[in-house]
Amino acid sequence: QVQLVESGGGSVQAGGSLRLSCRASGRTYSSYAMAWFRQAPGKEREFVGAIRWSGGRTYYADSVKGRFTISGDGGRNTQYLQMNSLKPEDTAVYYCADSKYYSNTGYTGWEAYDYWGQGTQVTVSS
Predict the structure, then answer these.
(1) What is the pLDDT of residues 82-97, one digit of tens each?
(2) I need a surface site. Which of 20, 30, 64, 122 has the fewest CB within 10 A?
(3) 66 within 8 A of 58, measured Cβ to Cβ
(4) How far is CA 33 from CA 4, 46, 108, in A?
(5) Are 114 and 1 in contact (CB under 8 A)?
(6) Burial of 111 (0-12, 13-18, 19+ CB in 10 A)
(7) In this structure, what DSSP letter does residue 30 have?
(8) Other beta carbons less than 10 A from residue 8's beta carbon
(9) Residues 6+ apart with CB under 8 A from 65
């Protein structure tokens, strides 16, 4: 059974930093890409960023570009989300996602991903 486990969430003041981790286990396939999504109460789930394992290329939503950084380990089992200069609007549950294959829908849609973590809460106060 594939399992994705997020960790590192918490509460910080505006301008602070957090580092989220997501570790995958139980895979029987080679992951193509992993991503982070977030969802605030009453709002739709939105794309935050992704890493394509081949070449390590990363992709970011405009709202976090320049503040958040995605990285991964060499074994494609763990991805990280370093979040700096946090804003109150970053408050949300953050979810890790894993993709088996390339998707013609691109990296930003939930349909591109096959497995999801349970989520970790990030709260930013001002």
Answers:
(1) 999 999 999 999 999 9
(2) 30
(3) no
(4) 13, 17, 12
(5) no
(6) exposed
(7) -
(8) 16
(9) none
Q: Tokens 């958040």 identify what position?
A: 68
Q: Under DSSP, is residue 11 helix (H, G, I), strand (E, B) or coil?
A: strand
Type of residue numbered 5: V
Tokens 């789930």 belong to which residue?
45
Q: Tokens 């890409």 label which residue?
A: 33
Q: What is each CA distance from 115 to 27, 49, 50, 58, 67, in whole angstroms?
A: 10, 16, 14, 19, 26
pLDDT tens figures, 5-64: 999 999 999 999 999 999 999 999 889 999 999 999 999 999 999 999 999 999 999 999
